[in-house]
Design a protein that fits this description.
This protein is an alpha/beta fold and 681 residues long. The protein has helices spanning 14-19, 48-57, 63-102, 109-118, 122-129, 141-190, 193-197, 201-208, 210-243, 245-292, 294-299, 303-329, 331-355, 361-402, 463-470, 493-498, 514-519, 527-536, 539-543, 563-576, 593-607, 642-648, 651-660, 666-678; strands spanning 424-431, 440-447, 452-456, 478-483, 486-487, 500-503, 581-585, 611-615, 627-632, 635-640. InterPro entries: AAA+_ATPase, ABC1_TM_dom, ABC1_TM_sf, ABC_transporter-like_ATP-bd, ABC_transporter-like_CS, P-loop_NTPase, Type_1_exporter.
Length: 681
């Protein structure tokens, strides 16, 4: 298939875009979009519940492995939550051994407690009564060693299980996202051209790249971290109540207070971050404008004005960024202060309870550790909730793409002969982008084999629409179009387009060698065929002068070859595909007059023995066409060759005079250009 990339056709469907607004949710720019740099603020899904359910549904094929991941997370969390309790027991063994060593051997704990009470040392007696000690015996190192070994083993096993769940989760998420990327890529190839005509290319690109990456991050990090953090919170709360329900109530008092702080400050910071990103985008636009328009600003002496505008926008960004960072930076210090208040309360009351013999020192130590660990998973849940919200929003945008209406399914019932003549007929064809505004009505025309049919007319007349219908980029509403007598709707799109070559106004090249770009028109072409196409279209003329010849690599922006040279390469690409039907859509509008004549020679060679449709605004490029169609409002208002249409002094004559009323001598210009081209380059 030799059809060029159709991105340049977007502007041709302006009539459609003007009559059908596409409501898109706001999407903040990233570096990939050419917008604001850095990370994006969290996006919000319009329908969080259904979108989240569908996102989780992507994991259904991996349900078995997901169950294993969940089990591994549970085991890891249970072990890490129980470990502080056992560590508290180890602390009790040490403390009991130290105190017991100081007690007289042979006496029982009860006797010593009674003796202390008799001496009026009730507090010390209460503390000893809550301890498991043997008077006269020091630290039981066997029990201590066992407990420490158990703790280390628990943390080691927990670490192994956490690593294993991360490994399994990464593998299955990568498989899911890989399948999602395949689905998105396949969907893009099934979408009609109208879908791309009504959407910004950057938005579609963001859905395919940034949003899918965001889904991967949400599944990969948010799921594991969120589940792990939720289980940790639940486990820590349970263990705190097991150790001391009184201290647990004190610890939980901090929760609503922290939530209020996070809610109030978070809502304020969100508004400031929105202002920050708005000003960041404005500053980026100013910087891009300054660089791209540097020469123009220099010519008109506007450098100081550009600097002043930059300083103003930079100051606005500074104020917004400082406010956003300052307010958001208050959240964790205030939450930490609240947690420290709870920590102080727990330490004081816990110490009193230990002194009163109501709990052991080990339990108090374990509880303090639980209280310190309690805030970490809460912070992770808050962060993961934002990530999950953003991931669901990205999933929603990706699902909108996957759910978009596709082009009509293939109904191929016929085939073209191996060799086609290129006889194209429009029979009472009608087409409109929207039902309320007809564009082409009851159009009939015939393009004879080997003839060149030029299509001219004002913008919006339907010129490009006409050739888009031939390519079946859009489907007609009534009538029929035939190629060599076969209705094109009875052909597969691939078979139809394999017979058509197209050269667009915007010369689009791959990031590869010149040779590869030419051969793209026919991947089965031999080196001799590629060279023949290059010579026939005057590509060989300038490639030979390049240091690397045909192995010259076209850079990403195609800046190492001129606009005219790029256009010649695209013509050679169409030439090597050897199409039966050729479409040239304003292929010379972006080059200068002398290069235009060289391109015309290449197109003339390409059009030889082929039926050609040529769309042109420059009437000088189609004077030799066999038939010129003048279109206005979707209708053919005049038809004939160049001289006939000029003699009629109608629509074509008006177009011609509007371009050349200045008295330009086209024949003299052509002769001068031909003379310059014949000289050595």
């Amino acid at each position: 298939m030799s059809t060029e990339n159709m991105d340049s056709q977007n502007s041709k469907a302006a009539g459609y875009a003007a009559h059908e607004e596409v409501e898109e949710e706001e999407y903040r720019p990233t570096e990939a979009d050419g917008g604001a740099w850095g990370s994006m603020p969290a996006k919000k899904a319009k329908n969080f519940g259904p979108s989240a359910k569908r996102l989780i549904g992507l994991l259904k094929p991996e349900a078995g492995r997901m169950a294993i991941v969940v089990v591994f997370i549970i085991v890891s969390v249970v072990l890490t939550v129980i470990a502080p309790k056992i560590l508290g027991k180890a602390m009790d063994v040490i403390f009991a051994g130290v105190i017991g060593k100081q007690m007289p051997a042979g006496a029982s704990k009860e006797q010593i407690v009674e003796g202390l009470r008799a001496q009026g040392q009730n507090n010390f007696a209460d503390m000893l009564s809550g301890m498991n000690l043997v008077p006269g015996r020091g630290i039981d190192f066997n029990e201590l060693t066992f407990l420490i070994a158990v703790i280390l083993l628990m943390y080691f096993v927990a670490g192994i299980f956490m690593w294993a769940q991360g490994f399994l989760l990464n593998r299955l998420v990568m498989r899911v996202v890989s399948g999602l990327r395949r689905d998105v890529e396949a969907k893009l190839n099934r979408l009609p051209l109208g879908y791309f005509d009504t959407r910004q290319r950057g938005d579609v690109l963001s859905r395919v790249t940034n949003d899918v990456d965001n889904i991967q991050q949400a599944l990969q990090q948010a799921f594991s971290q969120l589940l792990s953090s939720l289980l940790q919170v639940a486990g820590i709360v349970v263990m705190m109540f097991i150790v001391s329900w009184q201290l647990a109530l004190i610890a939980l008092i901090a929760l609503p207070l922290s939530g209020v702080v996070a809610g109030v400050i978070g809502s304020r910071s969100q508004k400031l971050f929105q202002a920050q990103w708005k000003n960041t985008g404005a500053l980026n636009g100013q910087i891009e404008e300054s660089f791209s328009g540097h020469e123009l600003a220099t010519v008109f002496g506007r450098q100081e004005d550009m600097v002043t505008r930059f300083d103003a926008k930079n100051e606005e960004l500074y104020q917004a960024s400082f406010g956003a960072q300052f307010v958001s930076g208050m959240i964790f210090p205030i939450m930490n202060w609240v947690s420290y208040l709870a920590y102080v309360g727990i330490a004081v009351i816990g110490g009193l309870r230990v002194a009163a013999g109501q709990m052991s020192l080990g339990d108090a130590t374990a509880f303090i550790q639980y209280s310190r660990e309690f805030t970490q998973p809460l912070g992770q849940i808050a962060g993961m909730a934002n990530m999950l919200q953003s991931g669901v929003a990205s999933a929603e945008r990706t699902f909108e793409l996957l759910d978009a209406e596709e082009q009509e399914p293939e109904t191929a019932t016929d085939h073209l002969p191996e060799v086609t003549d290129g006889h194209v007929t429009f029979e009472n064809v009608s087409f409109s982008y929207t039902e309320d505004k007809p564009l082409i009505e009851d159009l009939s025309l015939t393009a004879e084999p080997g003839h060149t049919v030029a299509i001219v007319g004002p913008t919006g007349a339907g010129k490009t629409t006409l050739v888009n219908l031939v390519m079946r980029f859009y489907e007609i509403q009534s009538g029929r179009i035939t190629l060599d007598g076969v209705d094109i709707r009875d052909l597969s799109r691939a078979e139809l387009r394999s017979k058509v070559g197209m050269v667009l106004q915007d010369a689009w090249l791959f990031g590869g060698t010149i040779y590869d770009n030419i051969r793209y028109g026919n991947l089965d072409a031999t080196e001799e065929q590629v060279m023949a196409a290059a010579k026939a279209t005057y590509v060989d003329r300038f490639v030979r002068a390049l240091p690397d010849g045909y192995e010259t690599v076209i850079d990403e922006e195609g800046t190492n070859v001129s606009a005219g040279e790029k256009q010649l390469i695209t013509i050679a690409r169409a030439f090597v595909s050897n199409p039966s039907l050729l479409i040239l859509d304003e292929a010379t509008s972006s080059v200068d007059t002398r290069t235009e004549l060289l391109v015309q020679k290449a197109m003339r060679a390409l059009r030889t023995d082929r039926t050609s449709f040529v769309i042109a605004h420059r009437l000088s490029t189609i004077r030799d066409a066999d038939t010129i169609l003048v279109m206005e409002n979707g209708r053919i208002v005049e038809q004939g060759n160049h001289d006939e249409l000029l003699d009629r002094r109608g629509a074509y004559h008006r177009l011609y005079m509007s371009q050349f009323a200045g008295g330009q001598d086209l024949d003299a210009e052509a002769a001068a250009a031909s003379s310059s081209m014949s000289s050595p380059s």
